[in-house]
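Translate structure to sequence.
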C-alpha cells in the first residue's frame, strides 16, 4: 500500500505544480542527474527545495521577469547563472552565488530576496545541503512562481490526493468557431468520499498541439484556422483528455444580437426584475426578464420609438447607450463606463447593424431599419 501512495504523491508534486514535461528542454546536466538520492542526503528536492525557490526566488527570476539576468526555473538555468556568473556550483555551496546572496547581512544591498525579509536559517541550511549533496533536480522539471496562498492550497490538496478517485475535464469537448470564440476550461477532481474539488489551477493542463489551439490562463482560444487537437489534464498520476475542434479560427464573425448584445443586458443588470425586466418594464422601456425572449427584446429595442432607443445615424446618441453610460439622466444610474468593453461591444454592434445590407434576415444579425420585421 505504501509505495503506490508515495508514488502518487510524488507525481502530484510534479504534475500539480504545473511542471509540463517540455520535450524541447535539454536534459538535466549529467553532474546534477548523477547526484545522490534523497534517501542518502535527507533532502528531497520537490519536498524541501522547490517550495523555497518557488515562493522566495521565482517571483523575480522567472521567464517573464529575469532580474540580474538570472533565471532560476531549472537546474540548467542556475548552472548558467546571471551577469555575475553561475548561481549554482554543484557540490560547492560556498562558491554558489545563490548561497552567497542569501547569507549576506540583512541590510546589505545585494541580499536575496531583496524584499520580504531574509531566508530563515533552516531554509539556507536546506539549500546548502542540497548543493553540497549534488544539487539533485528531477529531470525536465521547470519551476513556476507560486504565491504563498497557492502553496497553501496545494499543500491542502496534497493531503487529500491519495484518495483521488478520478479527474474530469469540463466540458468534455471543445468547439471553437471563429477568431473571437473562447472557452473556459474546468478540471474537476472527485475523491473517494464523493467530494469534488475544482483543481483547474493546480493540475498540469496543456494543449497537445499548440499550433491549433492555445491556453491563455485557463481559457482556450483558437490559433489555427482549422484543425483538431486535445486538451490534456494530469493530476496525481491520472491523465484525462478532451477533444478540441477549431473551425474558422482566424476569421471574425459578424456581430450578433443574441450572442453579443444580450449578454451585455444581462451583465449590466438591465433585464432584472427590479429594472426593465419587470412585468411592465421601467420608465416605458421593457425587456424580457433575464433575457428569456431575445426575439421580443430585439423588436422592442429596434422597433419601438424609432430613432430614439437606437440611433443608427449617430449610434452614440442612442438612448440605450446614453442612459447606460450615464450621459443623460437615468433612474437606473450608470450601468457601465463609456470606455467599458460592454459599451465598445454595443457600439461595434451598432456600427455593424448600420453596415448591414437591407433585408438581412439572419436570426442573429439585426437588419437595418429598412428591413421591416426579422430580428
Ligand atoms: C523581489 C525580487 C527578487 C527576489 C524575490 C529575488 N531576487 Fe535575486 N535578484 C533580484 C535583482 C533585482 C537582482 C539583480 C541586482 C543584483 O544583482 O543585486 C538579483 C540578482 C540575483 C543574483 C545575482 C545574479 C547575477 O549573476 O548577477 C542571484 C544569485 C540571486 N538574485 C539569487 C536569488 C535567490 C537565491 C533568491 C531567492 C532566495 C532571489 N534571488 C530572490 C531580485 C530578486
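Result:
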Amino acid at each position: 500500500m505504501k509505495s503506490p501512495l508515495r508514488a502518487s504523491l510524488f507525481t502530484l508534486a510534479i504534475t500539480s505544480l504545473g511542471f509540463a514535461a517540455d520535450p524541447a528542454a535539454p536534459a538535466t546536466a549529467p553532474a546534477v542527474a548523477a547526484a545522490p538520492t534523497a534517501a542518502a542526503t535527507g533532502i528531497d528536492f520537490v519536498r524541501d527545495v522547490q517550495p523555497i525557490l518557488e515562493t522566495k526566488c521565482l517571483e523575480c527570476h522567472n521567464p517573464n521577469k529575469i532580474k540580474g539576468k538570472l533565471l532560476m526555473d531549472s537546474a540548467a538555468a542556475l548552472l548558467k547563472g546571471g551577469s555575475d556568473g553561475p548561481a549554482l556550483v554543484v557540490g560547492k555551496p560556498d562558491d554558489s552565488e545563490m548561497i552567497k546572496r542569501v547569507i549576506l547581512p540583512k541590510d546589505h544591498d545585494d541580499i536575496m530576496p531583496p524584499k520580504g525579509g531574509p531566508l530563515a536559517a533552516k531554509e539556507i541550511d536546506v539549500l546548502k545541503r542540497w548543493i553540497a549533496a549534488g544539487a539533485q533536480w528531477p529531470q525536465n522539471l521547470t519551476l513556476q512562481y507560486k504565491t504563498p496562498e497557492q502553496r497553501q492550497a496545494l499543500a491542502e490538496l496534497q493531503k487529500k490526493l491519495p484518495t483521488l478517485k478520478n479527474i474530469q475535464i469540463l466540458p468534455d469537448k471543445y468547439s471553437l468557431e471563429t477568431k473571437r470564440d473562447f472557452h473556459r476550461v474546468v478540471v474537476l477532481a472527485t475523491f473517494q468520499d464523493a467530494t469534488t474539488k475544482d483543481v483547474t489551477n493546480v493540475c498540469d493542463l496543456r494543449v497537445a498541439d499548440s499550433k491549433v489551439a492555445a491556453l491563455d490562463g485557463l481559457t482556450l482560444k483558437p490559433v489555427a484556422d482549422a484543425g483538431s487537437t486535445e486538451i490534456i489534464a494530469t493530476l496525481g498520476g491520472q491523465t484525462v483528455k478532451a477533444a478540441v475542434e477549431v473551425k474558422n479560427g482566424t476569421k471574425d464573425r459578424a456581430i450578433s444580437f443574441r450572442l453579443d448584445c444580450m449578454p451585455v443586458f444581462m451583465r449590466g443588470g438591465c433585464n432584472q426584475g427590479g429594472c426593465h425586466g419587470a412585468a411592465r418594464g421601467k420608465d416605458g422601456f421593457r425587456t424580457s426578464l433575464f433575457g428569456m425572449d431575445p426575439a421580443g427584446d430585439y423588436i422592442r429595442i429596434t422597433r419601438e420609438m424609432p430613432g430614439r432607443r437606437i440611433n443608427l445615424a449617430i449610434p452614440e446618441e442612442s438612448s440605450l447607450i446614453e442612459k447606460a453610460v450615464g450621459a443623460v439622466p437615468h433612474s437606473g444610474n450608470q450601468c457601465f463606463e463609456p470606455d467599458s468593453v460592454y459599451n465598445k461591444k454595443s457600439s461595434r454592434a451598432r456600427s455593424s447593424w448600420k453596415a448591414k445590407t437591407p433585408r438581412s434576415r439572419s436570426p442573429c444579425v439585426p437588419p437595418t431599419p429598412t428591413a421591416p420585421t426579422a430580428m
